[in-house]
Amino acid sequence: MPPNPDNIVLYIGRHGRTSLNASNSFRGNANPPLDAVGIKEAHELADFFSSKQISHIFCSDKQRAVKTAEIIAQSKGDCPVHKSETLRALDVGTFSGTPRNAKSEAALQKYLDNPDTKIPGGESLNEFKARIGPCFAAGIKICEECGVPPLIVGHSSVIHEAGSLTRGDHKSVLVQPGGVIALFIKDGKIQAEPIFKPLKVSPDSKAKTIT
Known about the structure:
Elements: E1 8-14, H1 19-22, H2 36-49, E2 57-60, H3 63-75, E3 81-84, H4 102-112, H5 125-146, E4 151-154, H6 156-167, E5 180-186, E6 189-198, E7 207-209
Parallel strand pairs: 1-4, 2-3, 2-4
Antiparallel strand pairs: 1-5, 5-6, 6-7
Helix pairs in contact: 2-3, 5-6
């Protein structure tokens, strides 16, 4: 059951696809642009948000997030896009741009299982959590003050953190590139739920709202 729109306090969208997503490689602090599918997904996100009120749009300063946010903003009458390094993905350091496979994922997992240990060339999981959590809190505060939820356009690790904070399971609300989750209030608590996902077929594929 999707959340009551009146209870939504923050939207978190995942940027569209890049070549590194398509090749199943780690992204982290890498800065690839959207590919053709990613551009299509960004426009599908714009269509999704065309009927929804958004007070602000925030995104990481990586071009995949910025382009996605700008396409959405254009559909909202050039709503200002606020870029921030704070919203960057978990910096996986030397893993960035390398293929994901059983061996590399196991190697990275050792650092995730020891969240105070820095990933070589990157940051620790707890450093990432310490910068992302306040972004969620700030977004919710904006909604409380103006009555309209803002949108964060971020990365998969940002979605992971939303699941971790609201459900205690970092995979619980994960969406693919071009997907959206909502943070909302239910029974006095902040909860999270996926509300939109693109169909992974081709640049001409259609997206759908999750019901």
